[in-house]
Amino acid sequence: MAQSDKSQVIQGAFWKFAERIAAQLVSLVVSIILARLLSPSEYGTISLVMVFITIANVFVSSGFGQALIQKKDADSLDFSSVFYFSLFFTGIIYVCLFFLAVPIANFYNMPILLSVLRVLAISVPIMGVNSVQQAYVARKMQFKLFFNATLIGTLISAVVGIVLAYSGYGVWALVAQTLTNNIIDTVILQITINWKLTREFSFERIKILLSYGWKLLLQSLILQFYASLRSLLIGKFYTTEDLSFYTKGNQFPELISSNIDTGINTALFPVMSKAQDSISRVKAMARKTTDFTSYVMSPILIGFMAIAEPFISLILTDKWLPCIPYLRICCIILLFRAPQTAILQAIKAVGRSDTVLKVDVPIRIFAIMILLISLKHSVYVFAISEIVVTLFGTILYMIVSEKIIDYTYNEVCRDFLINVLLATIMGIVVFFIGKVISLHPIIIMFFQISTGAFIYILLSILTKSRSYLEIKAIIFKIIFKYKTRIKQ
């Protein structure tokens, strides 16, 4: 990977990661407050509403945004055309959700779903506007603007959400927090970015962008529908309590993974797209990303599995302890995200969005078969089945990566599994520390985290980990610059 590419990815990843941390911290605080104020059954109601909003947002966030970033000569006509089309299309989606709210509420026999879904669906047109803004910012690599907009939006929405939660508004606190955050982020981005909306529209440009974007949109829709299907089936065939434990168990690992993963890959895709004519450069970036992401993510996820019990007991209280098995299963699944996302970004960057769709269709067919088999057993077996699906999907992605960017199976395993092995050794020690020490959860977690960090760094030094040495060099460089500024 060229030094300029590396610098762009690192800087972009830093600001995108900072932006996601700022956004998710507010959601986390509000979520913890709601989890303490609401029963697991009530929280399951919130989970159901968010399933439908998330599916709707796939139409907004996937396809055209990626196409705008990938297109080499995208101009103001492209952005304006996508903006007007997105506004029109998301308006149609909102109308559909407004009328579908009635049969959805009746199907689950939950009248509150009617009003909550109709109000929260307002976020869909707002995100339609925001998706075009984000594509512009990503294309220009101006990720600091994300951070500025999110910081203001999250602070204001935090006040709104927490005040309403403590005032007894329950689910409406989360609704208000989400809408406030979306509106403020969108307004501030529109003010701060250089892109100005023009009064021009081209169906031809939409067709060109659609020829690339529709495959990614369909792939994302299939992926999200499958993920949402699991929650919908749990909510229907089991109980809302089961759904709340399943959702909460997935929430914290997803929060950790999505922030780091989104930060790195949002910055990586535009850089890869610029290098799309050089397969060797794209491959080098994919390898570097797999190694770096797995080096960072593996100890966090495996460590989180080890400290799950004292963490849940301290943060959410003992009434949420049944979510721990789902949390650990989710951590195992997310370990495989590093190679999958690196390969996915590389395939999209070289313009092979058709391959992304071709790979994902058999994965989802296999997943639904496994899902239907596991559904009749228990929610726990239902969750474990996703590990099987993840392994199958990773194998398919490795096969495709070797054909398209010459990133071989052996190289993927080498870049990925060594970091997982080091983290697993660390995790075993951390887990047994929690079993031996019988103290307050805060003290237990302190010993676990500090010991785990020491062991992982020691193992990184002994194995001469490339990612460790690079992170160490970056830290020393930042310290050197800081000391130089102080002396000046």
TrEMBL record:
<feature type="transmembrane region" description="Helical">
    <location>
        <begin position="379"/>
        <end position="400"/>
    </location>
</feature>
<feature type="transmembrane region" description="Helical">
    <location>
        <begin position="145"/>
        <end position="166"/>
    </location>
</feature>
<feature type="transmembrane region" description="Helical">
    <location>
        <begin position="172"/>
        <end position="195"/>
    </location>
</feature>
<feature type="transmembrane region" description="Helical">
    <location>
        <begin position="292"/>
        <end position="312"/>
    </location>
</feature>
<feature type="transmembrane region" description="Helical">
    <location>
        <begin position="111"/>
        <end position="133"/>
    </location>
</feature>
<protein>
    <submittedName>
        <fullName>Lipopolysaccharide biosynthesis protein</fullName>
    </submittedName>
</protein>
<keyword id="KW-1003">Cell membrane</keyword>
<dbReference type="GO" id="GO:0005886">
    <property type="term" value="C:plasma membrane"/>
</dbReference>
<comment type="similarity">
    <text>Belongs to the polysaccharide synthase family.</text>
</comment>
<keyword id="KW-1133">Transmembrane helix</keyword>
<feature type="transmembrane region" description="Helical">
    <location>
        <begin position="21"/>
        <end position="39"/>
    </location>
</feature>
<feature type="transmembrane region" description="Helical">
    <location>
        <begin position="439"/>
        <end position="462"/>
    </location>
</feature>
<dbReference type="Pfam" id="PF13440">
    <property type="entry name" value="Polysacc_synt_3"/>
</dbReference>
<keyword id="KW-0812">Transmembrane</keyword>
<feature type="transmembrane region" description="Helical">
    <location>
        <begin position="45"/>
        <end position="69"/>
    </location>
</feature>
<keyword id="KW-0472">Membrane</keyword>
<dbReference type="InterPro" id="IPR050833">
    <property type="entry name" value="Poly_Biosynth_Transport"/>
</dbReference>
<feature type="transmembrane region" description="Helical">
    <location>
        <begin position="412"/>
        <end position="433"/>
    </location>
</feature>
<feature type="transmembrane region" description="Helical">
    <location>
        <begin position="81"/>
        <end position="105"/>
    </location>
</feature>
